[in-house]
Amino acid sequence: MLSNLYKNTCRNVYSQSIFNHYKSITGINQLNYSKTNKKVSIILTEDIESIGQKGEELEVAKGYARNFFFMKNLAVHANHETRKQYEEFSKNIDYETRRIEKENSNAIKKLTKDGKITVMRKSDASGNATVPITVDNIAYSLKRRRGLVIDPKNIIMQPIENYGTHNITIVFGSKEIPVAVNYERLVHITKPVSSSLKK
């Protein structure tokens, strides 16, 4: 009886080890599968504002493709057949313009979330601003600090002549985005001259 019990115990331990080994292998495979299959290539079947143009190929999350694009018939899976089907539309897409639009769209989202920019200039002996901030200065600051290309004509503001916080409006497409401009005094910190240099 003890011999049978021992045999059954060994058999169960062996079976459990085989199961654990199989589970670890399949677990790793599932993990690798999920890592390499997070995104899918799609082709838009119509123009979608701030996303892309008809015939444009995009790479998006699988869930986003399934629950938004495919569910609303806004896109199809990108493969040899669909690429050929939408080839005429993709030829007419200005991808450089689209790239700039996407970069601007991302920058606009960040700007909308933050809602402010900072501009610094020197002051006179009395501590007052000497140079007014214009639409060109704001456009330059947006490009340099945010990577956002905005035509100065799309910046609604009066020249800012005094330090402080001032409200302006940036027109981007059909959107008007309120932005706070912090006009601050540029302070130069002079390093003390060492005693050895004084001699």
UniProtKB/TrEMBL annotation:
Any single GO BP term: translation
Domain of life according to the entry: Eukaryota
KW Nucleotide-binding (keyword) present: no
Pfam annotation, one family: Ribosomal_L9_N
InterPro entries found in the cross-reference section: Ribosomal_bL9, Ribosomal_bL9/RNase_H1_N, Ribosomal_bL9_bac/chp, Ribosomal_bL9_C, Ribosomal_bL9_C_sf, Ribosomal_bL9_N, Ribosomal_bL9_N_sf
Domain called Ribosomal protein L9: residue spans: 41-86
Gene Ontology CC: ribonucleoprotein complex; ribosome
Keywords: Ribonucleoprotein, Ribosomal protein, RNA-binding, rRNA-binding
Domain Large ribosomal subunit protein bL9 C-terminal: 107-172
Keyword hit for rRNA-binding: yes
An example Gene Ontology molecular-function term: rRNA binding
Family from the record: Belongs to the bacterial ribosomal protein bL9 family.
Name of the protein this chain belongs to: 50S ribosomal protein L9, chloroplastic
Species assigned in the record: Tieghemostelium lacteum
Lineage per the UniProt record: Eukaryota, Amoebozoa, Evosea, Eumycetozoa, Dictyostelia
